[in-house]
Amino acid sequence: MNLPVTQVLPQLSDALAALVASAASMVTAIRVGPNRHIAGIVWRADMVVTSDQVLPAQDSYSLAMYGAQLVPARAARRDPATNLASLSLDTLASPSPIRASTDSAVGALAIALGAALDGSPTVRLTAIHRVNQGQGNGMLGQTIVLDLPANLLAEGGPVLDARGGLLGMAITGAQGEAMVVPYAAISRFLDPLTNMKAAPHAQIGTRRGWLGVALQPINVPDTLRPVAGQTSGRMVVSITPSGPAEHAGLRLGDVLLAIDGQSVSGQNALRTFLGPDRIGSTIEVRLMREGAVRTVNMTVAQHRPE
User: Fold this and answer.
1) Contact indicator for 88, 82 with CB cutoff of 8 Å
2) For 216, which of 89, 150, 238, 255 is 20 to 30 Å away at the CA?
């Protein structure tokens, strides 16, 4: 029996609203600067997972959970190869139960959840645009591309199927696509954390370079573009004490333009640049400060142990 659209659409709307409500405690807002936050998945009562490429390196974080509860967390483990980072909660949460999705077919509906600054959920309704097998170096296995502009994606947040199963975590891919790190890859990444106390050596992740600075994409004002020589850069929003950026004299509000002649405007430019081969090297940083362009030298450190 075919139902009229006046019945089908309200049923769909109610079902989606109920799904989001049931999954609301699965998502959290990780505060990374003044009025700035990224999304994360509350994987279990003591653990949150998010996107490595958008999480600033800090010793501690403040997370807004569903219900506006602020919870402190500490860095646990990071892996740039899979773009995954985990945080250990100091106060146990009460997350929604997570179950793996069984529906990753092209064309299937997908619900991308994010978080407002207070931890309340946000949502984007989309569909699976493409499924890649063995993406990149194969560490992620199957990856999903969403039919959604990457700039609308809540990176680090959960992506659900129409039945509420977790497809995985939302990220922006190297080509600027809205993608999903699959559930299976997240599970593999978090497995060593189960034995953290018994085997501390298992926490050693992939080595990578570190600058000790958190950056925010920014458009260079029109009047300064002739001086900068480009239309965008990344503004310094926090500096880790005693880190490479502080030692090099960087200040809050500086706008990084290029490193060793390579623009930092790309989606994953810094993450790609700061590979293990850069650790210990001196790099030239081109930046704009108070309307003038200058260069400073900075020594790349190894990422601090999590």
Assistant:
1) no
2) 89
